[in-house]
Amino acid sequence: MKTPAAMFTVLACALLLSGAARAQTATTVKPGAKPPPKQTRPAARAPVPKILPVEPPLARAEGEQLAAAAMTHFGDYACEFDQSVNVNVTPNNDGYVDVRFKTQTWTMKPILSSTGALRLEDVKGRMLMLQIANKSMLMDTQIGQRVLDGCIHEKQRIATAAAAAAAAAAAASQPATESLLQGSAPGASAPQ
Fold first, then answer.
1. Phi, psi of 7, deg, nearest 5
2. φ, ψ for residue 60 (rounded to 5)?
3. pLDDT tens string for the chain (192 positions)?
4. Helix (H, G, I), strand (E, B) or coil at 49
5. CA atoms of 159 and 73, how far apart (whole Å)
6. Angle at 72 between CA 69 and CA 78, to 5 degrees
7. What fold is seen in the domain 63-155?
8. What DSSP letter does each residue of 103-159 carry, written as one string?
9. Where are the domains of the chain?
10. 119: helix, coil or strand?
């Protein structure tokens, strides 16, 4: 059994600890004295301005790139699903073009391929725009998908119409040419 002295010591310690805790949380204000100042947060630090990465300068365009840039169709393209893309000269960088779709703009390097297609390659390696005789398309090379397809510039529309007219004219003259090759006169019926 515990002795009364031990119980008294435990009780005294408990009272002292509870009094110390109460003294830390409660503040006493004497009558007529100013209340203690409210604790405030430390002053907020000024926001650190974001430093934008500096783009490295583009390599100077040489002969083949300048020739490919001259073959680029500049202006607006009407694409499938009522989309549009715009191609313009990159300011202060001869031989480069800017391709704008919605709110994004990519600086691209024109390259003429061996097949005759004009490749506009994003200098950062993400996007690719292909221009062929009758249409253009914009592709995202990182995910391997077309972003836009069936994009037609006014020059491509004219070239497509001219090719269709030439094909129609060739088809119209085709029967007369075949009958001459077979040795019969035009308008004569073929032997049966």
1. -65, -35
2. -65, 130
3. 557 666 666 666 565 566 555 555 555 556 666 766 667 676 677 777 777 776 777 878 788 999 999 999 999 999 999 999 999 999 888 899 999 999 999 999 999 999 989 999 999 999 999 999 899 999 999 999 999 999 999 999 998 899 899 888 888 877 655 555 565 555 555 555
4. coil
5. 12
6. 150
7. Lipocalin (2.40.128)
8. TEEEEEEEEE-TTSPEEEEETTSSEEEEE-SS-EEEEETTTTEEEEEEEB-HHHHHH
9. 63-155
10. strand
CA distance 151 to 13: 86
Task: Identify the helix (H) or strand (E) that includes residue 137.
Answer: strand 136-140
Residue entry with tokens 């073959």: 71
Q: Copy the structure tokens of residue 127.
A: 């996007």
C-alpha of 41 from chain center: 42
State both tokens at 6.
């031990």
Token pair of 187 as six digits: 């308008």
> Which of 79, 57, 46 shows the shortest CA–CA distance to 123?
57
Please, are residues 107 and 58 in contact by the beta-carbon 8 Å criterion? yes
